[in-house]
Amino acid sequence: MKTNLKPDSNGGAQYLYWINPNAPAYLEHMASEGPSHPRSQTFNSCATTDLAAFIEKHNGNQRRNIYHVPNAEFLDGKRNKANISAVRFLHVDLDFKDYPGKPAEQVDRVKAFLFDSDNRPSWIPHPTSIWMTGGGYQAIWRLEEPIGPDTAEKLNMALLKGLEGGPGTHDVSRLLRIPSTVNWLNDKKRKDGREPAIGHLAYPTTFKAPPSSYKVDDFVPPDHLLSSGGDAKSPKVANVTSIAPLPLPEKADDVLPDDTEWRAAIRDGKTPKGKSYSSRSELMFAATVWMLSNGMQPGTVLAVLLAPRFAIGDHIRDRAGDIIEQQSYAERQVKRALGVVSAKGSEWPTPTDNGQPKSNDPNNIRHALSKLGVAVRRNEFTAEDEFEGFRLEDRDINDIADILSSKFVRHLHFSASSAAIKRELLATAHEYRYHPVRECLDGLVWDGVKRLDTWLSDYAGVENTELHRAFAAKTLIGAVRRIRKPGSKFDTMLVLEGDQGVGKSRLVRKLALRDAWFCESLNLKAGDRERAQILARAWIAECQELDGLNKMTHENLKKFLSESTDTYRKPYDKNARQYPRHSILIGTTNEFDYLRDLTGNRRFWPVKVKQIDVKGFAGVVEQLWAEAAHREAVGESATLPKHLWNAAADAQAERVAEDPYMDALSGTLGGMVAKVSMDSIKLILGLPTAKLTPHDSRRIKAVMETLDWRDGTFRLWVSARGERRPVRGFMANDADESSPEVAARQTKDGKLTVALVGKNGELISPTDEPQTDDQVPF
């Protein structure tokens, strides 16, 4: 083993600074002998002196292999994909051993790919930087603007396949060797005969010019390279990049290929002669495939589907909601059609020796799905797999697998079992995941105008106070946080109070942005499972007419608000699972005394609304969410500031319905400075003395606290013992142990007397009402 190798520590440090100046640098080093024992350190800025010393110590003196994470700028926490929020660098890690031929031929093949534009696929630009690692080459491409980790990994995979590299190195958190450092190898590689080597920087040779950067649009890999599984021949079901509608000419028919029948079908929405389709959606999809097959650009096809002048898109306009939803749905249809067009002229990825498709092969199953125009994806918001095409939208996955198994045999002459198809459908859905609400919020751009604090006063006539401004902002920030961090604490509910017909429910519906993300009326009397299943599909849920609550549903609502997860078993699932809650509740009511007791009301944020400007609100609601998303992203709390707690408590107390306990106890004990036992309280209220429910106990305590009495254990007269003993009761806040005691006693004929307790337990001076001759205290 070579031991005299020395890293160019200054060169490695200068490289890290050059590639991303002033960004953090994450370095990780591992032992080259025995267990690797990885250790890491993050430098908040690429100070070359500190970096060089670190490299020299660990890679030089201690002979530890040293690496970096190019995207450390967006790393928060331990090194893994989940902690990388964005990606500025795409990369490949090409090992010589993954290429055919002799060692020299392997090296030439990799170098040709990276350095020779005639050998490199045309869609791959020249790398920003290339360095030799000792066993291969690593290269990176710097992006002008960061992109999402999932998109980056798909592009990394496409680069790897396009350059014919080995699998498994596309992870955005992957460690790459630092150029100009020594590859000391590990025990296994040295045992295989490899020798340590210095990984020299091959491109660029100097750091005089800034690193070249690219737009993500500069990388347009062929569809088959964007597949997340299998080999490079594996078909693609969904595209990684979005499709934007292109402008149509004034005479839009000119963009359509020259076919009288199909032109008429697209213009008028009628089935061409000799064709048969069972629905408008099938006709629309067939026309989309026909347009793409005849050379139309995807963006132009999308524009045709969205243009009202073409009836072929009526199905989209009738099915989807606003223009954003319509474009999203139409774009998915164009992507599905692209998969069909791509698969039509291609061979089966895995044929048998006689050229037939190999049965049950995963790549062949995906190819068959593309041929039929079946798209699969995972909706992370509803935690459900979604299927589009071939009229499978509302079918169970077991039925879908059976249907496709039959269709493959009859139309494609390809045999695949239902179990194999189901397995591939699940795998494909797992690879193509999306979250519609999170993507919507992340796509909104705040214009910088502050509206979030005052939307209740601006559009619902709510009094403009500091408390109401906090209610307005915190509700929306909490809703954003629930989407970005499901299960996060948000156990409060904004309550809109106002006359019937002012627009409370319409306002809440508009707040949800999409009808599909809105629950119109959450049934508080439903079971936990039913409510949980409803909320699993909702972002904003309305609780209507809170004035109809009884004490039981009021308690259930408070308990329900306090929970951050829901546990239930979905149909066809084997076991119940916990689902972190991603929704918030908003209450609406026509009354102003809907709270049923004095406990737990901090969860309700009440506001009185007047006439609501629903139209004006609809015009700014996206900007409200954009501002809320911005404020949530910078870490603003969704809890009410402490200095507003008293104001909130006062507002909540005003909404409490009259409580007979309050009337009885305030009329008997109000204004007294004394002590009283719980048994006496129960007698005053007419409650069974043997047993007190937890609800009654909390209710009594809340009323006594409101009357300025505190709960505790005090020395009070116990008739059964004939002495004073420590028992549970209440003491006025202005009283102490020396203060007099009040007690309630009941005569044999049922009359109740409340009076002060004398030295020997006798009642004196009744306090409930003036004594008459026939009322003798005992």
Automatic annotation (TrEMBL):
Coiled coil: none annotated. Residues 349-363 have a biased composition (Polar residues). Residues 441-655 form the Virulence-associated protein E-like domain. It comes from the Bacteria. Residues 342-364 are annotated as: Disordered. It comes from Boseongicola aestuarii. InterPro entries: P-loop_NTPase, VapE-like_dom. This is Virulence-associated protein E.
